[in-house]
């Protein structure tokens, strides 16, 4: 897809899978990646652009403390952004949506 249609996160707590509310559209293609024990996301790279009259997330890529990259998801273009975490780790996400994923933010915690 040209943009990132939506975002939904799932994680396991004490053996139980928890899914967040999906934000964004209902289309797109599903992508999944798993983090190893002790691995965490410490950088998000992406871009935003106008698509069908909305400002949308056009690309997302996640990087971990173990040097792994997941993505990019979406074809990109537009204005690029980076959310690097020098000390700490990304422990959650929040977003804004209309017909698609329009914005993304992160929750941080100390290491």
From TrEMBL:
Organism: Zingiber officinale (Ginger)
Keywords, ordered alphabetically: Lectin
GO MF annotation terms: carbohydrate binding
Keyword Manganese annotated: no
SUPFAM superfamilies from the UniProt entry: Mannose-binding lectins
Keyword Transcription in record: no
All copies of domain Jacalin-type lectin, residue ranges: 1-110
Record protein name field: Jacalin-type lectin domain-containing protein
UniProt signal peptide: none
One Pfam family of this chain: Jacalin
InterPro entries linked to this entry: Jacalin-like_lectin_dom, Jacalin-like_lectin_dom_plant, Jacalin-like_lectin_dom_sf
């Amino acid at each position: 897809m040209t943009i990132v249609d939506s975002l939904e996160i799932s994680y396991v707590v004490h053996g139980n899978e928890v899914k967040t509310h999906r934000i964004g559209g209902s289309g797109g293609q599903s992508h999944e990646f798993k983090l190893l024990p002790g691995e965490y996301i410490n950088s998000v790279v992406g871009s935003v652009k106008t698509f069908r009259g909305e400002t949308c997330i056009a690309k997302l890529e996640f990087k971990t403390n173990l040097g792994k990259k997941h993505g990019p998801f979406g074809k990109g273009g537009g204005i690029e952004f980076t959310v690097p975490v020098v000390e700490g780790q990304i422990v959650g996400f929040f977003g804004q949506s209309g017909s698609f994923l329009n914005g993304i933010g992160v929750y941080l915690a100390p290491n």
